[in-house]
Amino acid sequence: MKSFFRFLKQLLKLNNNRNENINEHNMRIVLLGAPGSGKGTQAKLIVKELNIPHISTGDLLRGAIAAKTALGLAAKEVMDKGNLVSDEIVLGMLKDRITQADATNGFILDGFPRNVTQAEMLETLLSELEMSLDHALLIEVDPDEVVARIAKRAEIEGRTDDTEAVVRNRLNVYKEQTAPVGDFYKEQGIVTEILGKGSIEDVQHRIQAVLRF
C-alpha cells in the first residue's frame, strides 16, 4: 500500500512537471550505476547544461571535515576509529547542501543513495523539505565492459589495485546493495534506464533525450 501511494504521488508530480517551463531546469536527479559506468562523467555534463550543483557524498564528507563543521567533526571522529560514517551524519550534510541557494532549481546526487534504506531516508528528508525527486537515471553497462573500462583506466593511471578480482567484487557489492535502489525508484515511476554503451557523447545524447535539454 505504501508503494502504491508513492507511485500515485510521483504520477501527480510528473504530470505537474510536464506543465512547467523546461527552461527553468527545475530538476532534482539521482544518478545510479555500477562502478565504471561513467556516472561521474555524465554528472559533470548534466550540471553544465542545467546549471545545477553536482552533489557527491564523498565531496560533502571531505568538505565538512576540512571546514570543521559540527557534522564534519563527528564524521572525522568516526572515521579515525576506522568505522563507517552513519547514514544520519551523511543525511545531515546532504540536508545542509540541498538547502543552499544554488540548489534552489535542483541538483544531481551522485553516490547516494547506495541502498534502499538510504533511499527511504532521502525520501523522508525531501518530503520534510517539501521536495521530491524528478528523475532517477540508471546507467546500465555490461559487467565485462565495466571490467575492461576500469582495467584500461588503471593502466593509464598506473594503478595496480584495480585488479579484475577487485572490480568484480565491487560489482557484486553493487548488485547486492545498490541495484535494488533502481527497483525502489521504479515503484515510484521516476526511473529511466540509460544504455551506457558507446562514447561519452552517445550516453550524453540519451540522457539529453530524457531530460529534454
Q: Main beta sheet: strand number and arrangement?
A: 5 strands, parallel
Architecture (CATH level 2) name of the domain at 2-53 and 107-122 and 132-211: 3-Layer(aba) Sandwich
CATH fold descriptor of the domain at 2-53 and 107-122 and 132-211: Rossmann fold
Structural class: alpha/beta
Shape: globular
Structure characterization notes:
The chain has helices spanning 2-18, 39-50, 57-67, 70-80, 87-98, 116-128, 143-157, 164-187, 200-211, and strands at 27-33, 54-56, 106-110, 135-140, 191-195. With 213 residues, the protein is of the alpha/beta class. The protein has a domain at 2-53 and 107-122 and 132-211: 3-Layer(aba) Sandwich (Rossmann fold). Strands 2-3-1-4-5 form a 5-stranded parallel beta sheet, with helices on both faces. Helix 3 packs across helix 5 (87-98) and helix 7 (143-157) packs across helix 8. The model is unreliable at 18-24 (pLDDT under 50).
